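Morning, I've got a small favour to ask if you have a moment. It would help a lot if you went through both lines with me. Thanks so much in advance, here it is.

***
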Amino acid sequence: MKISSEKTVIFAPSNRKFSYPLKTILPVVLSLFFLVNTGQAQILINEFSASNSGNIVDPDFGNSADWIELFNAGDAPVNLNGFYITDNFNDRIKWQIAGDYLIEPEGYLILWCDGMASGLHTNFKLAAEGEQIAVSDAGGVLIDSLSYGAQESNISMGRVCDGCDNWVFFSEATPGGTNVGVNYNGLVQNEPYFYPLGGLFKAPVRVVLKNLFEGKLRYTTDGSEPTALSTLYTGPIDLDTTTILRARIFKDRDIKPGKTVTHSYFIDTRNEIGNLPVVSLVSEPANFWDPAKGIYVQDFKPEWEIPVNIELFENDGSDRAGFNLPAGTKINGLYSWQLPQKMLGIYFRKRYGAGSLDYPLFFDKKATKYDSFALRASGNDWSKTLFRDAMLQNATLLNTGLDAQGYRPCVVYINGRYMGIHNIRSKVDADFIVNEQLDEGTKIDMIENEKTIEEGSLTAYNQFKSVYSNDLSDPDNYTQVAGQMDIPLFMDYMATELYGGNSSIGHNVMAWKPVDSGKWRWIPVDLDRCLFDPDENLMSLFLGKTVYPFPALMKNSSFARDFGLKMAGHLLTTFNPQRMSDYIDTYAGRIRDELPRHIQRWAGTSSSYGDPIPSVAYWERSMAQMKTFAFQRPAVVLDDLLDYGTAPALPVSVGIRPAASVVVTFNGLRIPLSSVTGEYPSDATIRLNASPVTGSAFAGWKLLSDTLLIPKGDTWKYFDKGNGLNNDWKNTSFDDSGWPEGEAELGYGDGDEATRVGYGSSSSNK
């Protein structure tokens, strides 16, 4: 590049190369105007891009901005200081180059058309629909100009050779370099029509393709892009099995073929497709399966992203896809990439076509626009339930303001091949937070594990870290910390992690806050290792240097006591055993019918990270194990908290009569069922609030007293001779003074012995 100036000019094209089909049979028709008597006529508009969507990045702002390349076709250097550039012939002095930018003979200068109005960035943008470009000298005298028509993404338009008169379309742009490479004299704009559109069919289907314009229609059925050698369409296509149809229009060899249109036809004559949404991913087969470059068969290559077409069929009776768009996909998962079934990230970028997805992916979320989402295979939970993380995240929403990722189970097909159950999940990124919590355009800092910048910068978090690193047993220091973090929400976050027994929390601590405002908040993510061992005490782990800033906060007695009460309240309400058991049933019910086919798909595979679910019975046992966890976990957590300032707990129960007639909160936490029973610290105040639902009136409270039958830790008498005992010991008059005694409960001391008090077969014998 022959450029010299007082400033350093850097041009940074991406190393990635993409080829995209374009939209029109558009001949290169340009209106060219030359004024050769200006003394500067050797400066020419040589190449431009009015629809740069990602593969060329400007060095100053890192954006995929449109650009114009100027070329010095003369024999002498030209200083462009004071020259004008415009996108409107009626305003030829729209933007002026300020500064000494010297172009040597046969040299180039790149102007970025992004509206930034600084340096080599113009105050206007180019229109992909077509407009004008003109360059004038410092006196306002026109030097070169052109009018152009509709452009396509990542296809530049330029002179067939530097300084030549003829203009062509380049498949690969060459800003700052010689105009060479594959070029076309025109573009095919039109697309073929499909009837019927892709969908879910219970019987064979006949598909008709139509081309209403000039050119030949060619198609494929294996997921590959149609080429000039692909099957020529001559009549209706009869489909009796699931098939991917891709078609595009071809004209002359010097005209770039049209856009590839993709439709997936699921022919379900055997009623294999259940009731889950269906996601169809289509790409060149080699992109997924080639031993050298296929992302599904390679070791982890997180930077490898391939172009795909994605369709979502809601499977709700509609005969059309919810959306059908070009996108990119790559393998996600720091460790879970080792699983036979991969987690796929879906990315909507301008270089593929649509820069975002406008669709309500999750009907319980506010967001209707997404730049990306995940098709998750459940990570550590792939071998167990396939929904553990999503279920626990969403369980918290009853009584917290925590950010829970969107979740929907679905089935995924790649080029028509069944890939099993996946979970459609929100990506935990800035867009997710802004869409759910903040006003559009709000900037945030998002930090993972105190050091990795997901968004923004570390400046604010490092300042917060310096504050919480002080001795928080000092009330003044604690007050400073409370001013920078959402303490109640952090308690909710820690309660979720502690209840779930999340042993992998150490590398999954995600915090965020708006830039220059607000308080730090934490997001529970990657809960796949939760709900396994009900007896696991993780307080020692959490009080290590794992969950910042929890260890420092627990040194404050007020925080420790309040956290214990918050935890106990959640155990009674949010994580109430019966509620969690019902939740497990709900999530299991969504995928139960699909599970046999999923199991069959992955049978025989294995990995160092986990093996597939071997049978439906095994999966059902995993449900039972989680329910056991739900009923046993509260008592264990309360016992663990005794060492950290939480008082011993006493039984408590709250009932609502009639059920669902009133919303009752227990110390601010909503009671989820018509009655709850559990334990709560004995020294705590309990505040109940009742809000009748529409059509009901609150009658009042009724306090019920309990009769203590056997105090915990009471002294018991026992007989352990093994024989010589008749039924007389059951009488109240029996003399047991000769029996040995001990503190209850009797047994092996494992803590799991149960004592049942009954009245026999007669209900009157109480």
